[in-house]
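Running this now, will post back.
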Amino acid sequence: MKDFKIVLILLLFTLSFSAKAWQNDEELGVLAIGFVVSDIEASEKFYTEIVGMVPTGQFSLDEQWSMDAGAANNKPFSVKMFKMKNRPSATILKLAYFDKTKKQKAKKGIDVSSGVNYLTFSYPSLEPVIARIEKAGIEIVGDVKRDGYRIIFIKDPDGMYVEMIERKG
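Update: finished.
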């Protein structure tokens, strides 16, 4: 629950700095999703080399900001940001990291608890993605093939389910 509150505050923080985007209907949508990660290097490598995201910036927040925000137990932290494509309207994935963050227990499915349990990415073809996944030795935990689409599920370094979709036709 504490991690969910941190993610929510980070999202609200980002939205507050992007009020200009609300003035233009073309920019409406989810601005950012924030995850607290236990190992920023492993997560950064996963989201760039496996998922295919590009870095778009980073920032750090001090103890005073943390205290004022009331979301991180007065601990300073840093955030690295990524997008699938570096466009103004693309959703930002924010990976927040602290000096020490305990990794959550592995989930055995997206149905076991409320909150953010998976993230979805869309690709024109899953073949290059699957090649990167296999090369990295990451387990594909699910593979659904139906008329018109294919979906695979993997897990990120912190055990978050990642859904990858290829739409056909």
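Residues 4-19 have pLDDT under 50 and may be disordered. More later if anyone needs it.
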